[in-house]
Protein backbone atom coordinates (compact mmCIF):
# COMPACT_ATOMS: atom_id res chain seq x y z
CA UNK A 1 0.00 0.00 0.00
CA UNK A 2 1.22 3.51 -0.78
CA UNK A 3 1.54 5.73 2.25
CA UNK A 4 2.43 9.35 2.86
CA UNK A 5 6.15 8.55 3.17
CA UNK A 6 6.26 7.14 -0.39
CA UNK A 7 4.49 10.16 -1.86
CA UNK A 8 6.69 12.58 0.10
CA UNK A 9 9.91 11.07 -1.30
CA UNK A 10 8.45 11.16 -4.81
CA UNK A 11 7.48 14.81 -4.45
CA UNK A 12 10.91 15.66 -3.10
CA UNK A 13 12.54 14.41 -6.30
CA UNK A 14 15.56 12.18 -6.77
CA UNK A 15 18.58 12.21 -4.49
CA UNK A 16 21.02 14.77 -5.91
CA UNK A 17 23.63 14.65 -3.18
CA UNK A 18 26.21 12.89 -5.41
CA UNK A 19 25.72 15.10 -8.48
CA UNK A 20 28.27 17.78 -9.33
CA UNK A 21 27.25 21.41 -9.11
CA UNK A 22 29.28 22.43 -12.17
CA UNK A 23 31.30 20.76 -14.96
CA UNK A 24 34.78 19.82 -13.76
CA UNK A 25 33.99 19.73 -10.05
CA UNK A 26 34.54 15.94 -9.94
CA UNK A 27 37.94 16.53 -11.57
CA UNK A 28 38.94 19.10 -8.98
CA UNK A 29 38.75 22.04 -11.39
CA UNK A 30 37.48 25.54 -10.56
CA UNK A 31 33.97 26.55 -11.57
CA UNK A 32 35.12 29.43 -13.79
CA UNK A 33 38.23 31.19 -15.01
CA UNK A 34 41.59 29.72 -15.96
CA UNK A 35 41.74 25.96 -15.52
CA UNK A 36 37.96 25.47 -15.59
CA UNK A 37 36.30 23.16 -18.10
CA UNK A 38 35.75 24.68 -21.54
CA UNK A 39 32.04 25.09 -22.14
CA UNK A 40 30.15 24.36 -25.35
CA UNK A 41 30.33 27.92 -26.71
CA UNK A 42 34.12 28.02 -26.71
CA UNK A 43 34.35 24.50 -28.12
CA UNK A 44 31.96 25.29 -30.96
CA UNK A 45 33.75 28.56 -31.72
CA UNK A 46 37.11 26.76 -31.83
CA UNK A 47 35.97 24.02 -34.19
CA UNK A 48 34.25 26.54 -36.47
CA UNK A 49 37.46 28.57 -36.71
CA UNK A 50 39.56 25.46 -37.36
CA UNK A 51 37.13 24.10 -39.94
CA UNK A 52 36.89 27.49 -41.66
CA UNK A 53 40.66 27.81 -41.92
CA UNK A 54 40.96 24.27 -43.27
CA UNK A 55 38.21 25.02 -45.78
CA UNK A 56 40.06 28.16 -46.90
CA UNK A 57 43.36 26.29 -47.29
CA UNK A 58 41.68 23.45 -49.20
CA UNK A 59 39.90 25.97 -51.43
CA UNK A 60 43.17 27.70 -52.28
CA UNK A 61 45.32 24.58 -52.69
CA UNK A 62 42.92 21.77 -53.60
CA UNK A 63 40.01 23.54 -55.34
CA UNK A 64 37.74 22.93 -52.32
CA UNK A 65 38.06 19.12 -52.31
CA UNK A 66 35.96 17.93 -49.34
CA UNK A 67 38.33 15.06 -48.57
CA UNK A 68 41.15 17.58 -48.64
CA UNK A 69 39.35 19.75 -46.08
CA UNK A 70 39.04 16.81 -43.70
CA UNK A 71 42.66 15.80 -44.33
CA UNK A 72 43.93 19.30 -43.57
CA UNK A 73 41.75 19.42 -40.44
CA UNK A 74 43.09 16.07 -39.20
CA UNK A 75 46.68 17.12 -39.92
CA UNK A 76 46.21 20.47 -38.14
CA UNK A 77 44.68 18.84 -35.07
CA UNK A 78 47.32 16.11 -34.78
CA UNK A 79 50.28 18.45 -35.27
CA UNK A 80 49.13 21.38 -33.16
CA UNK A 81 47.33 19.58 -30.32
CA UNK A 82 50.11 16.97 -30.18
CA UNK A 83 52.87 19.57 -29.88
CA UNK A 84 51.33 22.75 -28.43
CA UNK A 85 48.21 21.40 -26.74
CA UNK A 86 45.86 23.56 -28.81
CA UNK A 87 44.81 24.22 -32.38
CA UNK A 88 44.45 27.66 -33.93
CA UNK A 89 40.75 27.69 -33.06
CA UNK A 90 41.47 26.55 -29.50
CA UNK A 91 44.00 29.33 -29.07
CA UNK A 92 41.62 32.01 -30.34
CA UNK A 93 38.82 30.66 -28.09
CA UNK A 94 41.20 30.58 -25.10
CA UNK A 95 41.15 26.83 -24.45
CA UNK A 96 43.66 23.98 -24.57
CA UNK A 97 43.88 20.19 -24.21
CA UNK A 98 45.57 18.62 -21.19
CA UNK A 99 45.69 15.22 -19.56
CA UNK A 100 43.60 14.70 -16.45
CA UNK A 101 46.71 15.16 -14.30
CA UNK A 102 47.36 18.55 -15.94
CA UNK A 103 50.24 17.50 -18.18
CA UNK A 104 50.38 18.03 -21.93
CA UNK A 105 48.17 15.77 -24.05
CA UNK A 106 51.01 14.45 -26.20
CA UNK A 107 51.14 13.04 -29.72
CA UNK A 108 49.30 9.74 -29.10
CA UNK A 109 46.38 11.49 -27.43
CA UNK A 110 46.28 13.99 -30.31
CA UNK A 111 46.08 11.21 -32.90
CA UNK A 112 43.33 9.24 -31.14
CA UNK A 113 41.33 12.37 -30.19
CA UNK A 114 41.52 13.67 -33.76
CA UNK A 115 40.45 10.41 -35.38
CA UNK A 116 37.47 10.21 -33.02
CA UNK A 117 36.78 13.91 -33.60
CA UNK A 118 36.62 13.25 -37.34
CA UNK A 119 33.89 10.65 -36.69
CA UNK A 120 31.74 13.42 -35.08
CA UNK A 121 29.54 11.15 -32.93
CA UNK A 122 32.08 10.66 -30.08
CA UNK A 123 32.21 14.44 -29.74
CA UNK A 124 28.44 14.74 -29.43
CA UNK A 125 28.26 12.27 -26.53
CA UNK A 126 29.42 14.14 -23.43
CA UNK A 127 29.35 13.49 -19.70
CA UNK A 128 28.50 15.83 -16.82
CA UNK A 129 32.01 17.31 -17.01
CA UNK A 130 31.57 18.22 -20.72
CA UNK A 131 34.12 15.58 -21.76
CA UNK A 132 33.31 13.85 -25.04
CA UNK A 133 34.13 10.22 -25.76
CA UNK A 134 37.24 11.41 -27.61
CA UNK A 135 38.48 13.03 -24.37
CA UNK A 136 37.46 10.09 -22.18
CA UNK A 137 39.27 7.63 -24.47
CA UNK A 138 42.60 9.39 -23.91
CA UNK A 139 42.03 10.77 -20.38
CA UNK A 140 42.18 14.35 -21.57
CA UNK A 141 40.16 17.47 -20.88
CA UNK A 142 39.62 20.76 -22.66
CA UNK A 143 40.15 23.62 -20.23
CA UNK A 144 40.21 27.40 -20.34
CA UNK A 145 43.58 29.16 -20.54
From TrEMBL:
Q: Where in the cell is it found?
A: Cell membrane
Q: Which residues form the RDD domain?
A: 72-139
Keywords assigned by UniProt, alphabetized: Cell membrane, Membrane, Transmembrane, Transmembrane helix
A GO CC annotation given for this chain: plasma membrane
In terms of InterPro entries, this protein maps to:
Pra-immunoreactive (IPR051791), RDD (IPR010432), UCP021697 (IPR016795)
Q: Where is the signal peptide?
A: none
Q: How does it sit in the membrane?
A: Multi-pass membrane protein
- One Pfam entry for this protein is RDD
Taxonomically, which superkingdom?
A: Bacteria
Bilayer-crossing regions: 44-62, 68-88, 108-126
Name of the protein this chain belongs to = RDD family protein
Amino acid sequence: MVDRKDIGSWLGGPDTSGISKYPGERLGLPESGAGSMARAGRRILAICIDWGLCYLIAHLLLNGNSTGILGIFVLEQILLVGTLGYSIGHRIAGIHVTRLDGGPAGPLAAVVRTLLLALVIPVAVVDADHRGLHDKAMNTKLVRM
